[in-house]
Design brief:
Number of helices: 13
Shape: elongated
Number of domains: 3
Protein name: AMMECR1 domain-containing protein
Strand content: 15-25%
CATH topology of the largest domain: Protocatechuate 4,5-dioxygenase, Chain B
Order of helices and strands: HEHEEHEHEEHHHEEHEEHHEEHEEHHEE
Organism: viral metagenome
Pfam families: AMMECR1 (PF01871), Memo (PF01875)
Oligomer: single chain
CATH superfamily of the largest domain: LigB-like
Largest sheet: 8 strands, mixed
Distance between the termini: 83 Å
């Protein structure tokens, strides 16, 4: 009996051990399931709905951020351009029969181009997607917000889209709201609205204040409903494209204010949202917009115009303070290299970019002897070089330059002489003068600063790195160095 009892205890122990193991396996499975929800791609977006010829690139620059085959459901909050004789409320415009259970909404049986002109691109990018389209007419309630946010939260393979086209200007639209230059003025008009759409958390009262201005956009209630959902799920947003319907010969000119009078114009913005979106992180669009503003300022100066070029308020360059150099070149020959160093936290990098570009006209003529002319502007390369923030710069005595500085083309030096005079060589100088020794490099820099060629040994140096982005005027693309 004693043996049997002992054997029974052993069996019981094995059973308990099995239960513990089973419990551990279950926990492991749960954690695996949770990983599905740990998503690093966007979950929502505001996109324009104009035809592909005009706004196709703006939508493409949204869709490239979303995985094609993972997305199975789209909830699309459409605008409604003809709501005459429709009572206020939320309506169903379209639903794929395989979408599944949705709220019982009254149905509007009419074509709505803010979905029709976009549908084919959505289905092409997401080949397995099921779409549910709804539209608010003048109002919506908390129940629809709750249903949308619950669905998006519970379905990691779903996304929420809404749509708007911004300012419509010209005879074609019975609207003459924009002054010359129209592209710049529509930026002034729209920048506070767009800024409100990427603030985190979203300030719904500000969004309603701007979207209630009928001249700013179409589909205001669609955007209000979308933003209420995004705020509830706590997503942050970032602008990934912003241009207009005036067609240009090259990509950079889409972001450039020229001297052309634009008779008819519709403005487009593309914004993505998600749990991991960082609006301050620079992307290619931010760089293109900055390069376009450099060209815009040069055009303004060359034509003695009186308007003020600036980056839009929502540009991430307003949250940066580091130094920046801008430049241009023609057939590989530099004809401007001008910059602004990091000084105070109130002097934003966004402002520095325009200020430096404003100095290029005289720099090209007086220093480089390759002056600008209107017929050469499209042939130029345009460059923006962002210096490391100052807290990353390494300070050394000039006599120790050889110990710490590498002529590898990745480092630049800021030299300050005992006299107080100073100068810098950007990293590109080392790349372009590979035959130089460090002594030769520093002697030339010392003379550039206004001293004799040996003064650097008693001076102070700061070593830094930078990132350079160049618009190639011949190949029409950005080069990174």
């Amino acid at each position: 009996m004693k043996t049997k009892k002992t054997h029974h205890k052993v069996l019981k122990h094995k059973v308990l051990k099995h239960k513990v193991l089973k419990h551990k396996v279950s926990k492991h499975n749960i954690s695996k399931t949770k990983k599905i929800y740990n998503i690093n791609y966007p979950r929502a977006a505001i996109l324009p709905h104009a035809g592909k010829k005009y706004a196709g690139d703006a939508r493409k620059n949204i869709l490239i951020h979303f995985p094609r085959y993972k997305i199975k459901y789209i909830i699309y909050i459409s605008a409604i351009h003809d709501s005459r004789d429709i009572l206020p409320g939320v309506y169903q415009l379209y639903k794929d029969t395989t979408f599944g259970k949705t709220p019982q909404l009254p149905i509007i049986n009419k074509n709505e181009h803010s979905f029709d002109w976009v549908e084919n691109e959505l289905r092409t990018h997401f080949p397995n997607v099921k779409i549910f389209v709804l539209t608010p007419v003048k109002k919506y309630d908390t129940q629809i917000v709750k249903w949308i946010t619950t669905f998006i939260s519970n379905h990691p393979n779903s996304v929420l889209f809404s749509t708007t086209d911004l300012t419509h200007h010209g005879k074609q639209f019975n609207n003459n709201i924009l002054k010359f230059p129209q592209r710049l003025h529509k930026q002034y008009l729209e920048e506070h609205l767009i800024y409100s759409l990427i603030q985190h958390p979203l300030q719904l009262h500000k969004i309603k204040q701007y979207t209630n201005q009928s001249e700013l956009l179409c589909g205001p209630y669609a955007i209000q409903l979308f933003c209420e959902c995004v705020k509830k799920i706590n997503y942050s947003g970032k602008v990934v494209d912003y241009y207009d319907s005036h067609l240009e010969n090259n990509k950079l000119d889409k972001y450039t204010v020229t001297s052309t009078h634009i008779k008819n114009i519709v403005s487009y913005v593309s914004i993505i949202y998600g749990p991991t979106i960082n609006s301050d992180k620079l992307n290619n669009f931010d760089i293109m917009l900055a390069l376009g503003s450099i060209k815009s300022e040069i055009i303004k100066k060359l034509n003695n115009a009186s308007y003020s070029v600036k980056l839009p308020l929502w540009s991430p360059f307003y949250n940066m303070h580091q130094g920046v150099f801008v430049g241009t070149s023609l057939n590989g020959k530099t004809n401007c290299s001008y910059g602004r160093y990091e000084t105070t936290n109130t002097h934003k990098t966004a402002t520095k970019i325009i200020e430096a570009a404003g100095d290029c006209l005289l720099d090209a003529k007086n220093r480089w002897n390759i002056p600008y002319s209107n017929h050469l502007l499209d042939k130029l390369d345009y460059k923006i070089e962002l210096l490391d923030p100052k807290h990353k710069w390494k300070k050394y005595s000039g006599k120790h330059t050889e110990r710490y500085f590498k002529l590898n083309g990745k480092q630049g030096i800021y030299l300050k002489l005992l006299s107080g005079k100073s100068a810098t060589y950007l990293p590109v100088v080392a790349r372009e003068h590979k035959h130089w020794t460090i002594d030769k490099y520093m002697e030339n820099l010392s003379e550039k600063a206004g001293g004799n060629k040996y003064d650097w040994k008693k001076g102070t140096i700061w070593i830094y790195e930078s990132k350079s982005y160049t618009w190639d005027g011949n190949k029409h693309k950005i080069k990174l160095s």
